[in-house]
Amino acid sequence: MTxxxxxxxxxxxxxxxxxxxxxxxxxxRVVTPFQFEDRDHLVIVLCQDALGWVLTDEGHTYMHLTYxxxxxxxxxxxxxxVIGNALDAFRVEDSxxxxxxxxxxxxxxxxxxxxxxxxxxxxxxxxxxxxxARSTFLEDLRTFLTDTVPPGRLAxxxxxxLHDPAGHYAVDYxxxxxxxxxxxxxxxxxxxxxxxxxxxxxFEKWAVPFRSVGIFEDQEQVNRKVLARFSDxxxxxxxxxxxxxxxxxxxxxEYVGGA
Length: 259
Description:
The protein is of the alpha+beta class. The protein has helices at about 5-15, 60-65, 75-90, 110-120, 130-150, 190-205, 225-235, 245-255, and strands at about 20, 25-30, 45-50, 50-55, 95, 100, 155-160, 170-175, 180-185, 210-215, 235-240. It has 8 helices and 11 strands. The strands form 2 sheets. The chain has a 6-stranded antiparallel β-sheet. A 5-stranded mixed β-sheet has the order 7-8-9-10-11, with helices on both faces.
């Protein structure tokens, strides 16, 4: 199959804007109009091995996603499901972070179409819908805390068994094992922050000893007045999980180490 026939097959099936740039023996850079959200183009290489022609991203897709998402967060939760479904749907192989699709029966156009579709679906993890992003924040926080806090010292959705048996004032997480427990609040929006403020004030009213820390999905999205009232009630805050994981980890390790 000549380069001319290959590019003709690509253009017929995928886009007239596709070109091939030779990069050595039996190796071409496939230039397409398809982009990540930040307008960087997908990296696609067509090369030949002992078994035939292969399309590969040479590990670029995952590398690009890790600009915004921690590598370990791509491997679990909602993001892992998005990626796994894309790979399965288009028969793309994940070879230690390199995405590959073999060209079968000289169907270069069909192979490129499937490969591009898989890569574009995988890039969805960088701009999930707001609802999915919220669920991802909670998943990421739960995983992070499970990895950081020693076993047996983390309780989710904790409520006071005497003052609040029905759980109306449950906190997202309680870290125990110290003289004074730590209440951790997961904060996503104005309503969520208002509820967290009410919960902390209620525990003060009950004279329950505690310390508190709030972790925001994105503090900049919270109304200033709502945030100000929460700040009066909460001892420690982190403006986001993604940008503060190292700081939060140090804070929690110092706290649990004070048992």
